[in-house]
């Protein structure tokens, strides 16, 4: 029997610490690590399924080549053949176009372990290439908080237990961040009041004291309505002039432009509720708002978050232990970056395409065109918008490589499939984008079949390239996984973690030694050093300098219903582990009254469509959904067009400042509905 320490590398707030058990080299169980202070020995059902996933008959164990795209005729090939095909294509394209720009990488959130940055490193080692930048998750909110606070940081979320009032706003931790729930319950046990703001009665709402239903994309105005009440009731922090910039202008805007009648009309929240909640927020200390990613997936998402930050600042909740406005952080991601930055072989710039409009922007590249695409830790043909453009892009490409664990919508279009290892089969290091813990993932078993880690694949491709044409790639051609990860702990990260030497991280996950409460001394990292209600940086980026309300998009006559597709409890985006998440039916949740209006009852078959596509659904009326919204929770649906065939590529207002491109305003999707 052997015990090993792993970290769950999924795109999830929690980054859980796992203890895995092996017998005679076989993984036999995984369980939560009881010594981890945040995840406290518990795993969610998605990870508890990991043993089955590692040995699943569906897992791809060998490099494979597809006879023709979408044919499903895959034949096993050797690693040598696969590496040679890739290296030759890279060199051919470089000769043909005289540049490496036709080579493109699209990578995101399959595995957030830092050794997966080897793929970026490999591409940098080739020369200037075409890259996906930005994020489909959280960009607008990250920019908004960076404008307001100066850096993107949040307090230790464990301290939410000390709060006396918690507002869960556009976040669904009961499904998407399950380890935060016990902390919220601890606060409830101490007497805290918890309110959930969502567009529908979510699993989180069911666990709180009060549910406030907000019309999609209007939360910014609601925050401004609350702020207006604080001003009227003189509940604003008397010290604002000592640590904020532009509070007078903001208060003037509230007085002159915001009315509770308008706020109620647009948001759907009654005036007495606005007043009561605002008074409670202004009078309770510490009070914490957790703003989630759900509320910023709109064309006004960044403005929304700036309005919520401004509400927190006005009431004096910033810097309070257990209070503040929490969204996420990347201060615990200050790794050295050695892996993704090998020496640049030429002085050309990479061609950067917004990950949320990748196919459109790639199609628009003509000089030179994109000719080879590597998809790693991504499933864009399921998760992106504008899938028709993806089909067009695929026709233009000479070679599509997918590295993954399983076949996916994206691998259906690929020429080559490279099998990767799971986190039980390779070394890695992981941080969370929420809590303060950082740790090492150690391999528990040997790679299953002929799978290789993404890092090994990058070394091997570089090796093959250099064999064919010496000097054609500056990425290392071999190495040691463990040594590579230890090199990523540079002086800055060692300091953050309070370690003297990198090896100490091998012992146990470490909590970053940041003070528990961010902005406690009320000095900010903005250009003015103050909290900025009024932001020159925003104005310079052609955005409003104040957090004013800008409305979201409106439905049209032909597509009168807004389609929301939030995350599901049993999957991480397109990755599905638990059997109950598999379904051949697309369930459409909607208000019973709305169903009646369309002549529909539970179990009826219906069709939703818009100018982009159509999907057949089964009707499931649910209380607690607004009349202008229909919901499909994101999950793997067998045999149906992908959910995203209904989604375009609307962009959020912000994201460029910190992440290089605006985010995915995917909640600005409208459909029509008809009984079949
Ligand atoms: N189980 C599970 N966990 C996950 C994921 C998963 O797929 N499954 N995905 C991971 C990833 S990639 C991400 S980005 C995070 C996201 O996790 P969260 O931050 O929780 O964000 P979402 O799940 O997108 O949306 C949260 C809630 O916002 C609501 N919402 C939508 N529009 C609005 C609005 O206009 N106003 C308000 N007030 N609420 C609104 C939705 O109905 C939903 O209940 O979760 C991560 N964790
Ligand atoms: N309709 C709709 N669309 C959405 C969203 C939504 O809520 N609704 N959410 C959006 C959001 S927030 C996000 S973050 C994106 C997520 O979109 P993606 O980043 O594409 O995430 P996944 O769908 O999880 O696909 C990740 C792939 O990586 C693979 N993988 C896992 N581990 C590894 C590994 O170690 N190496 C390699 N090479 N591959 C690995 C998985 O098997 C999977 O096929 O989707 C966005 N799209
Ligand atoms: S998916 Fe999230 S909650 Fe589940 S084990 Fe992984 S990190 Fe933890
Ligand atoms: Mo995400």
From TrEMBL:
Sequence ranges assigned to domain 4Fe-4S Mo/W bis-MGD-type in this UniProt record: 1-58
UniProt cross-references to Pfam families, sorted A to Z: Molybdop_Fe4S4, Molybdopterin, Molydop_binding
Record PROSITE patterns: 4FE4S_MOW_BIS_MGD (PS51669)
Gene3D superfamilies referenced in this protein's UniProt entry, alphabetically: 2.40.40.20, 3.40.50.740, ADC-like domains, Dimethylsulfoxide Reductase, domain 2, Formate dehydrogenase/DMSO reductase
InterPro entries: Asp_de-COase-like_dom_sf, MoPterin_dinucl-bd_dom, Mopterin_OxRdtase, Mopterin_OxRdtase_4Fe-4S_dom, Prok_Mopterin_Oxidored
GO molecular function: iron-sulfur cluster binding; metal ion binding; molybdopterin cofactor binding; oxidoreductase activity
Keyword Iron-sulfur found: yes
UniProt entry keywords in alphabetical sequence: Iron, Iron-sulfur, Metal-binding
Signal peptide range in chain numbering: none
Protein family (similarity comment): Belongs to the prokaryotic molybdopterin-containing oxidoreductase family.
Name under which the protein is recorded: Anaerobic dimethyl sulfoxide reductase chain A
């Amino acid at each position: 029997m052997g015990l090993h320490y792993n970290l769950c590398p999924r795109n999830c707030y929690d980054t859980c610490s796992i203890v895995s058990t092996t017998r005679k080299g076989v993984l036999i169980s995984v369980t939560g690590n009881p010594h981890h202070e945040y995840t406290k020995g518990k795993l969610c059902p998605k990870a508890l399924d990991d043993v089955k996933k590692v040995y699943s008959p569906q897992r791809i164990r060998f490099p494979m080549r597809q006879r023709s795209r979408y044919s499903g005729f895959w034949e096993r090939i050797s690693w040598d053949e696969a590496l040679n095909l890739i290296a030759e294509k890279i060199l051919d394209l470089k000769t043909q176009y005289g540049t490496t720009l036709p080579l493109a990488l699209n990578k995101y959130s399959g595995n957030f372990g830092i050794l997966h940055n080897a793929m970026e490193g490999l591409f940098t080692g080739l020369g200037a290439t075409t890259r996906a930048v930005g994020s489909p998750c959280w960009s607008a909110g990250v920019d908004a908080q960076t404008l307001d606070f100066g850096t993107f940081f949040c307090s230790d979320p464990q301290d939410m237990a000390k709060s006396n009032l918690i507002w869960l706003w556009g976040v669904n931790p009961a499904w998407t961040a399950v380890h935060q729930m016990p902390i919220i319950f601890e606060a409830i046990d101490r007497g805290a009041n918890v309110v959930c703001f969502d567009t529908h009665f979510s699993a989180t709402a069911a666990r709180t004291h009060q549910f406030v239903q907000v019309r999609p994309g209007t939360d910014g105005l609601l925050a401004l309505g609350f702020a207006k009440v604080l001003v009227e009731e003189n509940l604003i922090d008397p010290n604002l002039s000592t640590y904020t910039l532009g509070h007078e202008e903001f208060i003037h805007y509230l007085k002159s432009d915001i009315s509770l009648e308008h706020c109620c009309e647009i948001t759907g929240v009654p005036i007495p509720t606005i007043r009561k909640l605002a008074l409670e927020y202004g009078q309770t200390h510490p009070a914490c708002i957790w703003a989630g990613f759900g509320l910023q997936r709109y064309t006004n998402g960044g403005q929304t978050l700036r309005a919520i930050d401004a509400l927190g600042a006005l009431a004096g909740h910033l810097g309070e232990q257990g209070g503040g406005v929490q969204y996420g952080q990347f201060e615990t991601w200050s790794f050295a970056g050695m892996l993704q930055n090998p020496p640049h072989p030429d002085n050309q710039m990479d061609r950067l395409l917004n990950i949320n409009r990748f196919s459109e922007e790639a199609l628009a590249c003509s000089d030179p065109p994109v000719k080879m695409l590597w998809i790693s830790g991504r499933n864009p043909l399921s998760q992106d918008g504008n899938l028709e453009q993806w089909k067009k892009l695929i026709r233009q490409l000479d070679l599509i490589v997918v590295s993954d664990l399983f076949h996916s919508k994206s691998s259906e279009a690929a020429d080559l499939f490279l099998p990767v290892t799971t986190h039980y089969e390779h070394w890695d290091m992981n941080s969370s984008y929420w809590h303060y813990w950082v740790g090492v993932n150690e391999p528990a078993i040997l790679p299953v079949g002929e799978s290789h880690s993404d890092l090994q694949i990058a070394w091997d491709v570089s090796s093959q390239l250099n064999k064919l044409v010496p000097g054609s790639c500056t990425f290392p051609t071999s190495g040691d996984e463990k040594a590579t990860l230890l090199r990523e702990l540079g002086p800055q990260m060692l300091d953050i973690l309070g370690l003297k030497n990198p090896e100490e991280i091998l012992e146990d996950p470490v909590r970053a030694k940041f003070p528990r409460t961010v902005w406690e001394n009320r000095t900010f990292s903005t250009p003015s050093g103050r909290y900025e209600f009024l932001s020159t940086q925003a104005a310079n980026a052609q955005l409003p300098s104040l957090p004013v309300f800008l409305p979201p998009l409106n439905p049209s006559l032909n597509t009168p219903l807004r389609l929301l597709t939030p995350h599901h409890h049993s999957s991480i985006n397109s990755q599905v582990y638990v059997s109950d998440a598999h379904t051949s039916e697309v369930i459409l949740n909607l208000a019973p009254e709305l169903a009646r209006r369309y002549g529909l009852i539970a179990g009826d078959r219906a069709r939703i469509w818009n100018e982009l596509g159509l999907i057949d659904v089964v009707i499931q009326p649910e209380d607690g959904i607004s009349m202008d919204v229909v919901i499909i929770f994101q999950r793997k649906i067998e045999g149906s067009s992908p959910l995203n065939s209904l989604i375009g590529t609307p962009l959020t207002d912000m994201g460029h400042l910190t992440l290089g491109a605006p985010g995915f305003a995917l909640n600005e999707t409208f459909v029509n509905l008809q009984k079949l």
